[in-house]
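Title: Request for sanity check on CKLF factor prediction

Description:
We are preparing a figure and want to confirm that the structure record we downloaded matches what your pipeline produces today. Could someone re-run it with the sequence below and paste the raw structure tokens into this thread? We only need the token string, no images.
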Amino acid sequence: VDRAFPRSPRGALKIARTLVALAALVCFVVAGSHQAYTALASMETAITVLFLLLYLLRLDERMRCLFWPLADIFNSMIAALFLLVVSLFAIIIKTNKGTLAGGVLGLILLVLCLADAILLFKKISHDKSRGRSAPAK
């Protein structure tokens, strides 16, 4: 278990994404909103928890079949695109206050997804061990 990961900026961002997605899910479920809102919030919660566990348990170092930070960037960008559409629909339609609150939390989650993608992109592009000047192992 990587005990330093939750205290790192990436770990704190993953935890924040999980909590905001869970709060949006609760808002959509309690409000009885459309199933698309609930499905997106639940998928975002589950996928973010899985990536959090992947990094927390250092499974990304053991399973080298995929470049996990790049997969995480793609997940963040696609989630941001879906969150933009669904959250704007939830805010515009605002059938009740729960749907409106879930839409606002979805927009906050959108910002967190973009921040996570930018942070991961900077980590990948500034990682010296993957460059050509790195010594061979």
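Thanks, this matches our download. The first helix runs from residue 9 to 31.
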